[in-house]
Amino acid sequence: xxxxxxxxxxxxxxxxxxxxxxxxxxxxxxxxxxxxxxxxxxxxxxxxxxxxxxxxxxxxxxxxxxxxxxxxxxxxxxxxxxxxxxxxxxxxxxxxxxxxxxxxxxxxxxxxxxxxxxxxxxxxxxxxxxxxxxxxxxxxxxxxxxxxxxxxxxxxxxxxxxxxxxxxxxxxxxxxxxxxxxxxxxxxxxxxxxxxxxxxxxxxxxxxxxxxx
Length: 213
Hints:
The protein is α+β, with helices and mostly antiparallel strands. It has one domain (9-207): Sulfite Oxidase, Chain A, domain 2 (Alpha-Beta Complex). Helix content is 21%, strand content 25%. A hairpin with a 4-residue loop joins β5 and β6 (141-145). Mean pLDDT is 85; it is low at 4-34. This is Molybdopterin-dependent oxidoreductase.
């Protein structure tokens, strides 16, 4: 497992704030910053809920069609591009995955790092008993206590075996963990251990209590 130098949230926003897209700013006047390194980079991840530092406004029925179709709602959110995700401290882990039951090296920032970039105080959120919802592009939804997600060591993977994950495959983002390292999963069938993983991850919500449904 290796880590590379990190970039602070302050530096991340400073580097990206000047590239705010005009259409987005016009549609959501409260947005003052977007997490883009340049105007050509589309958003790949949106985070909403308790404790975030928003860089965009609320749900837009015209622009946010997948979020709407999946029943998500928010008044403000933090969004960022793949370049911004890639700029965060990278973690690598070798794990056995369910699809071919072979070992692969996955790389990307830890979930904790991504949430901190969005402004969330992880220690406080865990202490207050917050929950996390992770939404995938196919409609699959993972919900669990934030403290459990942190204990499981989720990775927001952007690459596997040195190759980028892509839409139509497992990416571009994959919320994944090392199932073999989690004690409470050792007595479950191997393929059942990945029920909390979300390939095609595109939206995360932090809530004060367990979500309904």
